[in-house]
Amino acid sequence: MANILVTGGAGFIGSNFVHYVTENTDHHVTVLDSLTYAGNLASLAGVPEERATFVKGDITDAALVDDLFSKADSVVHYAAESHNDNSLDTPRPFLDTNIVGTFTLLEAARKHDTRLHHISTDEVYGDLELDDPERFTESTPYNPSSPYSATKAGSDLLVRAWVRSFGVRATLSNCSNNYGPRQHVEKFIPRQITNVIRGIRPKLYGSGINVRDWIHADDHSSAVLTVLEKGEIGETYLIGADGERNNKDVIELILEMMGQPKDAYDHVTDRAGHDLRYAIDSTKLRTELGWVPSYGDFESGLAATITWYQDNEAWWAPAKDGVEAFYAQRGQ
User: What is the DSSP string of 161-189?
Assistant: First the structure.
């Protein structure tokens, strides 16, 4: 795996993976990213120039993808349209990137016999009841509830079909909600942190009872590298760090950690079709591949994340006003 191609490597989770690989291995990384609003070259700042190559392009560009796959030893596929609210407003880009883009990569992997790891989400499973003791496992039936999660479910099924039908050497992982450095300020945790920094009252969808299973992006990165190196071809691995918290608790914890009253936030209109609860059972990954998260609890990871946003306002400030204007129009 001397040369790893990372699609979407200038996005939040992808860029954290690039940093992790260059800091913890000797591999060279090639980043393919179209630099939509979610991609940011500044997220790759600090990566040694001799360890990484950046290519601006789209994963639906078959000729470009073919050329890059011919030079790669392995590929980690992060590139995706991933914001639920955007998928409810304009679904088409989600089909183009998540379905057609993944198909394009699979055809290149098939042609060049390139090792591929596909990054997915726990949202493909739908949601769980708040009082349900169960958690998602690799055998949980798919039940997506938004255009975003439906297209990610479709891309997962394409990967499995290309493994079975054409012998593509691929693995999959479905991860719980990531948080950490370099996450776009439209997302829940960085939006609230940057609101507090700016003196804006944080915003909570509905009553805030919706539960997410949080994992720090560094732990996701270490898990993905573990699957890439040790995972069994054709297998799916769920990645989670036992970080279940409801949104109300998260926003109050952010406020407390940042020296504010825990009730200094506003309730806003809930998201349409807002899933109740996600929860990951990562037993397979831990027992079969020996992975464990570095952040033993959500609080320590959140504290590190708050510090990063406090220290890196130049990274997130250019997007902040536009994001808040967009949500203000929606009453959120």
Answer: HHHHHH---EEEEEE-EEESTT--TTSHH
Q: Residue 11 has what DSSP assignment?
A: S
For the chain, the distance separating the N- and C-terminal CA atoms, rounded to the nearest angstrom, is 45
Class of domain 3-178+215-239: alpha beta
Least Cα distance to 241 among 297, 305, 179, 182 occurs for 297
Please choose, from the candidates 298, 292, 117, 279, the residue with its C-alpha nearest in 3D space to the C-alpha of residue 219: 292
Q: In what helix (H) or strand (E) does residue 31 lie, and over which residues does it extend?
A: strand 28-33
Angstrom distance (rounded) from CA 287 to CA 265: 41
**Which single residue is written with the structure tokens 């379905």?**
99
Catalytic annotation, residues: 122-123, 148
Span 98-125, pLDDT tens digits? 999 999 999 999 999 999 999 999 999 9
The contacts of residue 62 (CB under 8 Å, 6+ apart) are 104, 107, 108
* pTM, to two decimals: 0.94
Q: Identify the three-state secondary structure at position 282.
A: coil
Sign of CA dihedral 202, 279, 6, 68: negative
